[in-house]
Amino acid sequence: MELSFVLVGHDLELLDTLRLQLEREGQRVRVFSSSLEALESATVRPPDCLVTDLSMPQLSGVELTQKLRSMAGLASTKIVVLSDEICQSERDSALESGADGFFSRASNDRSQILSEILAVVSERIRLKFWGCRGTIPVPGPGTLKYGGNTSCVSMTFPNDHVFIFDAGTGIKPLADSLMAIEDRRLVGTIFFTHPHWNHINFIPFFSPFFVPGNRLTLVGSPVQGQGIEQLVNNQMGGVHFPITTSEFCAQVHYQDVDQGRYRFGPAEVETMVLEHPGHCLGYSVFFGGKKICYVTDNELFPEDSDRYNPDYVERLLLFVKEADVLIIDTTYFDDEYLTKVGWGHSGVSAVCRLAHQGMVKDLYLFHHDPGQDDEALERKLALGQRVLARLGSTVRIRLALAEEEVVLQRPLF
After folding, report:
1. What pTM does this model have?
2. Domains of the chain by range and CATH?
3. d(C-alpha 354, C-alpha 356), whole Å
4. What is the DSSP string of 169-199?
5. What tens digit of pLDDT does each residue of 166-199 get?
């Protein structure tokens, strides 16, 4: 796949190195030391990606980005701004003006700079599992391989915006990893499926809440007349936990959502009310031609059950249709489920049939019963493989490893 790049800046040595690396891969590259000349060239022949220095005479990187973003013909062009160092206010200005990425060019590793640029062009998402268990955490020797933490999944986008789904105990190691990045100010969105305890109980242990300069939006659906802000305040109101939300030092915003389609940061997000006691949302994320579905907790009733709702199943099928990744409640083995009907969770075979009918690419079994150790999860995986084989399905079925990272991106070269 041949792509076109425009490189503009005053570090001609860096630009020449990037040009050589890109041309070696068969890409077309135009290099400029003048931002006005780069703007004119990009206007006449829109590139797939424009890389610009932040500080330049004539037009700064931010001003150049603003002009490019005002032109309809350049809407699909990716813009990367490079700076001598990462200053949070400059980074914010660049991203708010429409840049897709903001990176330091101070590194001596030129291949790392190119890798960051290509991550933007390929619209790379880094998906990571921090907690996959349901109900309660289950630490111990029997859960070392797949992890014992409860629900938490993250998605990191090329501009470093982070999506976080649920705040089970898995959000603690996620917080530790984020805090280990020096001089970083976090911009992120936390999506709550519902306020059952195992999905919100580790909100107070997400340490980025207590760091000035971080910006976080908390998203969820109102339950029994209480919006997401009130639901979080209830959890940290001094009764269940001694530290209240008034101690947050980060900029924290709250947004109530219902079923619909929304824009958060770099991605489109669709929501659906799931079959679960209370009010639980599923989320589908759309970015870079990829679709990632997070569907927990959810119950798929047998067709012979008086609770079976064909309209709901059809809507759920549409919701997950052709997902690149489906992360879904698969709490029970089939025989276990028969004793838990109405509890709000699903058995393996029903989930596999849904994924097959929905033409899902990768199915991740999720929200496991706390009584299931790693060996049991592997038996669950084997059962799912047999079900899909009988269906003649192309679905790839998986168990997420503890802190496993999955990279999704467009193929480039």
Report:
1. 0.94
2. 4-121 (3.40.50.2300), 125-408 (3.60.15.10)
3. 5
4. TTHHHHHHHHHTSTT---EEEEE-S---HHH
5. 999 999 999 999 999 877 789 999 999 999 999 9
